[in-house]
Amino acid sequence: MKDYQKLYAYLPYFEKLSRDNNGLTDGKNPFVSEQHLLYTEYAKEMVEFAECFYEVGFVDADYMETLDEYGITNADEMDCNIPTADERLTKAILTKMIRDERFTSDAWVSYVEKSG
After folding, report:
1. Who's near 35: CB < 8 A, 6+ residues apart?
2. For strand 32-35 and strand 18-20, is the pairing parallel, antiparallel, or unpaired?
3. Which residue from 62, 61, 63, 52 is spatially nearest to 4, judged by alpha carbons?
4. Any idea what DSSP says for residue 57?
5. Are 113 and 20 within 8 A, CB to CB?
6. Alpha-carbon distance 29 to 58, whole Å?
7. Whole-prediction pTM
């Protein structure tokens, strides 16, 4: 089993995220640094988490097939399955979430808001 301790170190950051009058925040810094027409700049912690995700190899290259095998077809189903997901499904869900931002600006904001 690979060492994912670097990823686990980001859990407190995500647990602290909440919405205030200025948007999503960890209590100190905004989740979104800047929004532009075609892309979103995120907090340093989120960008570092995404880089760490690739660095430690927590990627499922076949994430779409994995999600299909588990019968997951949308973001709501991903969110419902996170609490009981095994490692394989967790990798697939996280890979989809990380990759979605590459193709859809604000995807990460949407996922964080959904997880409430």
Report:
1. 41, 106
2. unpaired
3. 52
4. T
5. no
6. 26
7. 0.81
Distance in angstroms (rounded) separating the CA atoms of residues 97 and 99: 6
Per the DSSP assignment, residues forming a β-bridge with 24 are 19
Residue pLDDT, tens place only, 92-106: 999 999 999 888 777
Query: How far apart are alpha carbons 1 and 37 in whole angstroms?
Result: 41
Summarised one tens digit per residue, pLDDT across range 22-79 is: 667 677 777 777 777 777 888 889 899 999 999 999 999 999 999 999 999 998 999 8
Can you say whether the dihedral through the CA atoms of 58, 64, 66, 68 is positive or negative? positive
Distance of CA 110 to the CA centre of its chain: 10
User: In this structure, what token pair is assigned to residue 16?
Assistant: 């602290």
**Single-letter amino acid, residue 17:** L
